[in-house]
């Protein structure tokens, strides 16, 4: 399915360092996964989820298999990118192809590493990049809205439906704001129309504050400023040190715990980035569990049981009959599928069931 987070930011802020750390972890687990790295700048990354181990322990599974999301390392954007500066058009096209944006901001001081604007100011950097995205959107929508207005005046139903959303997006962009801020106040239909326009600033954003090693545990004044900006926008931010993450990714697994502790950390920052990316994409996880393996699977929030079955195999979706469903808390609390059944907590759910995060499912299907 490939849910994709694009790593975006100014040049030389640590995007590739982050990407390499993310995908090194993946490379380590590459042996038991057939379609790992597809293109040099695209990597599939396992989504850390402590529930896998809990379920596997109870189900006595020989293996656990995490679900995955895709990260794309996109080249740096510079001021003027929307006018083609620094191969801007090509990079903007790369951003158009992702579902969410992971925006890396330089929050570390280091005179040896050039900053394209010659000063460390992540909030200003965020505005520089966002401005390029808005200018690109503005041009795109100005170009398309002319035809839509004409068609709508000519009583074209589709155009009439699309036009109000396009006008609203245009007004926002002209006011210097990203169209993403419109989403909260929209109903599902309008939201769909807006998404269909595939504007860069309609994509959800996670800010990643890339700090120096010594600030990895607590952040610094720069990352605090980013957190405040994110909060004003209703977005999220995480603090990591890409430099440390790159080192951790190289370590043998047995040494990771001690190293993290020596840095004052409880888990790799990457795990937080991956989980935040997963949330950003509005994805949830369900599980299958058996003696062979406990496995996590990804669906969009709101997906129904047959769609969820289709993630495993299209035949499961086509021949879907029902899904035996045990909520995660019941599975753990009662001690597995058999006990859940005895307690009446294994529900038989049909085609209209909306899958909940953490559900442990077993599909019945015709083939
Ligand atoms: N947290 C950090 N502390 C110190 N140095 C860092 C940190 N993160 C990255 N760097 C260094 O910054 C430099 C630029 O990193 P990187 O190549 O990942 O940037 P980039 O955003 O991918 O750049 P480009 O847009 O040019 O591809 C590298 O020398 C890297 O080692
Ligand atoms: Mg790079």
UniProtKB/TrEMBL annotation:
Stored SUPFAM superfamilies: P-loop containing nucleoside triphosphate hydrolases, TGS-like
Residue ranges occupied by any OBG-type G domain in the UniProt entry: 3-260
UniProt keyword Magnesium present: yes
UniProt-recorded Gene Ontology molecular function terms: ATP binding; ATP hydrolysis activity; GTP binding; metal ion binding; ribosomal large subunit binding
Cofactor: Mg(2+)
UniProt entry keywords in alphabetical sequence: ATP-binding, Magnesium, Metal-binding, Nucleotide-binding
Presence of keyword RNA-binding: no
CDD domains, per the entry: TGS_YchF_OLA1, YchF
TGS domain segment(s): 282-365
Annotated residues for binding of ATP: 12-17
Bilayer-crossing regions: none
Gene3D superfamilies, sorted: 3.10.20.30, P-loop containing nucleotide triphosphate hydrolases, TGS-like domain
Record's GO cellular component terms: cytoplasm
HAMAP family noted in UniProt: YchF_OLA1_ATPase (MF_00944)
Protein task: ATPase that binds to both the 70S ribosome and the 50S ribosomal subunit in a nucleotide-independent manner.
Homology family: Belongs to the TRAFAC class OBG-HflX-like GTPase superfamily. OBG GTPase family. YchF/OLA1 subfamily.
Official protein name in the record: Ribosome-binding ATPase YchF
Species of origin: Aurantimonas aggregata
């Amino acid at each position: 399915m490939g849910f994709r987070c694009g790593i975006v930011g100014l040049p030389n802020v640590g995007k590739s360092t982050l990407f390499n750390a993310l995908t090194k972890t993946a490379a380590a687990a590459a042996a038991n996964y057939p379609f790992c790295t597809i293109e040099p700048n695209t990597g599939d990354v396992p989504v850390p989820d402590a529930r896998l181990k809990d379920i596997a322990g109870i189900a006595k599974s020989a293996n656990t298999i995490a679900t995955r999301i895709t990260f794309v390392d996109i080249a740096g954007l510079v001021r003027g990118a929307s006018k083609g500066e620094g191969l801007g058009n090509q990079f903007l096209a790369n951003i158009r192809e992702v579902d969410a944006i992971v925006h890396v901001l330089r929050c570390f001081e280091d005179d040896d590493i050039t900053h394209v604007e010659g000063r460390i100011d992540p909030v200003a950097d965020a505005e520089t990049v966002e401005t390029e995205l808005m200018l690109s959107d503005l041009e795109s929508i100005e170009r398309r809205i002319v035809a839509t207005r004409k068609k709508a005046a000519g009583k074209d139903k589709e155009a009439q439906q699309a036009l109000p959303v396009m006008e609203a997006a245009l007004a926002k962009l002209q006011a210097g704001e990203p169209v993403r801020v419109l989403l909260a106040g929209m109903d599902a239909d309008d939201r769909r129309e807006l998404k269909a326009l595939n504007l860069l600033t309609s994509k959800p954003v996670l800010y990643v504050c890339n700090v120096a090693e010594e600030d990895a545990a607590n952040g610094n004044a720069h990352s605090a400023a980013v957190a405040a900006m994110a909060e004003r926008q209703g977005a999220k931010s995480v603090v990591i040190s890409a430099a440390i993450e790159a080192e951790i990714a190289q370590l043998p697994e047995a040494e990771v715990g001690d190293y993290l502790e020596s840095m004052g950390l409880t888990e790799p920052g990457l795990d937080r980035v991956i989980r935040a990316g997963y949330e950003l994409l509005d994805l949830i996880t369900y599980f299958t569990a058996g003696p062979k393996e406990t496995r996590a699977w990804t669906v969009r929030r709101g997906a129904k049981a047959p769609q969820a079955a289709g993630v495993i195999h299209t035949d499961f979706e086509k021949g879907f009959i029902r899904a035996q469903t045990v909520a995660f808390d019941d599975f753990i609390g009662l001690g597995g599928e058999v006990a859940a059944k005895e307690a009446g907590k294994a529900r038989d759910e049909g085609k209209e069931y909306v899958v909940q995060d953490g559900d442990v499912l077993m599909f019945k299907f015709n083939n």
